[in-house]
Amino acid sequence: MQNGPAVRRRKLGAELRALRTGAGLTSGEAARLVGWHQSKVSRIETGASGVKPADVRLLLDAYGVADSQLRELLLVLAGSDGGAGRHHWWHAYRGVLPPTYRDFISLESQASAMRTLETSVVPGLLQTPEYARAVTRAAVGGLDETDERLDALVEVRLARQDVLRGEPPLELSAVLDEAVLHREIGGPGVMGRQLWRLVEAGRLPQVRLQVLPFRAGAHIGITGPFVIFLFSHTSDLDVVVLDHLTSSLYLERKEDLQAYSEAFTTLQIHALSPEESLDYIAGIADGA
Fold first, then answer.
1. Of residues 124 and 74, which shows the higher confidence score?
2. 91-287: which CATH topology?
3. Where is the HTH cro/C1-type domain (predicted)?
4. I need a labelling partner for 136 at 20 to 30 A (CA). Which of 23, 40, 118, 239 fits?
């Protein structure tokens, strides 16, 4: 388990090493092509040191990597503010977003799919503005309704939802513990509108929403929520994210990814089907 930047360095390094070997180059040959010492290439590939986006571009050019989406993803892992892909809008909020949150958003913006178990609140990508405001205010603490920082954090949460409308859109699979549907956040009116928003979102082709009902009893996700990011170009970049009050932990080992992927599949099996889930949420919303 590591923090976001460390995981990004390791994953970026591993991918660059794979691309170098795929190009039939030794680390020394790659270093000579870009005018570096061989030790710099080695440090980058092991994740021992960071690498600037400009240096990543040099290596990708040397390795003959023409895939624009793969190049963009690797540049994001290197901390690029721009590129040919989605606009990295979150950099405008550097003053209010902690680094771990920026890391999360950067991964979310480039992932092809996201699997999430939520046990307390509606996933951020599916929240209404009112619900997002109530959740953010409670999570951050010490902010009142007129606080500009609260406004900015809510703006960020809502802007993140654009990934569901992108081309191609992020594919979201979410399992919600039934407690999420009954925890009254923001008052009855806010909660009612949020439930109907879930029903609406669950009908989108890129969203698979399932409810894990109370009658399912104890389940493998009872220890807490998690997120799995999947990347279409290479599974080596897939990562599990565990959120804590003051930080996030990233699990990148293949055995961890396999364990959480299997756990998520098990949760889907025990949850209501997507069709049953939407009917179930609608029934709760009718009584809200």
1. 124
2. Endonuclease; Chain A (3.30.870)
3. 16-70
4. 239
